[in-house]
């Protein structure tokens, strides 16, 4: 049975002004700590892709790693981390992306995705979509095929989906 919106929402904590004033941070740690809901939400994500499983699931540090690893296991896929600069030990490929003020960068190991492999991107929250767009560019630089982006929470008022033209974007909960 699918989890209701209410079951998910009551385990997502709104933290105002974190990490900076004006941001309402969607804290998924209560959801992750609830065994039935964590399992249920991971199964829901997996059920969407089970008929066309990706070769690889990739997630963006740090919170994305938690559902990402679980979804990879559920789909029988490999797992590839995308990280902030300087964190990955081997040779990397980088992608810059715009933040509200300034730019940031994401990196992936240059041999993490083989040309032609299919990749599902998993993250906790889709906000402006800049992070997911940068992850997509990294995978494409390595010759990977992005099957889609699956997030637990979509902040639809920030329009992230509009930055991800032509990519299937799936969310478990929309605000
Ligand atoms: P985006 O603006 O879509 O590039 O989001 C940047 C990253 O920050 C994503 O990986 C999200 O996990 C995280 N993020 C953005 N906004 C929030 C928020 N309101 N609550 C929790 N995480 C957020």
In short:
With 175 residues, this protein is α/β, with parallel strands linked by helices. It has helices at 5-9, 29-33, 35-49, 65-75, 130-141; strands spanning 13-16, 24-27, 56-60, 78-82, 92-98, 103-109, 118-126, 145-154, 168-174.
Task: Give the CA-CA distance, first to last residue.
Answer: 22 Å
Shape: globular
Proportion in helices:
25-40%
The CATH C-level class name? Alpha Beta
Biggest pleated sheet: 5 strands, parallel
Which small-molecule ligands are present, each listed once? adenosine monophosphate
The secondary structure category is alpha/beta
- Lateral arrangement of strands in the main beta sheet: 4-3-7-8-9
Indicate the proportion of strand residues: 25-35%
CATH topology: Rossmann fold
Describe the 3D structure.
The chain is α/β, with parallel strands linked by helices. The protein has five helices and nine strands; from the N terminus they run H-E-E-H-H-E-H-E-E-E-E-H-E-E. The strands form three sheets. It has a five-stranded parallel beta sheet, with helices on both faces. The two termini are 22 Å apart. It has one domain: Rossmann fold (3-Layer(aba) Sandwich). The mean pLDDT is 97. Helix 3 crosses helix 4. It is globular. The site of adenosine monophosphate has 18 residues, from strand 2, strand 7 and helix 5.
List its traits.
175 residues; two-stranded antiparallel ribbon; 9 strands; globular; binds adenosine monophosphate
SSE layout and pairings?
Layout: H1 5-9, E1 13-16, E2 24-27, H2 29-33, H3 35-49, E3 56-60, H4 65-75, E4 78-82, E5 92-98, E6 103-109, E7 118-126, H5 130-141, E8 145-154, E9 168-174
Parallel strand pairs: 3-4, 3-7, 7-8, 8-9
Antiparallel strand pairs: 1-2, 5-6
Helix pairs in contact: 3-4
Bound molecules: adenosine monophosphate (AMP).
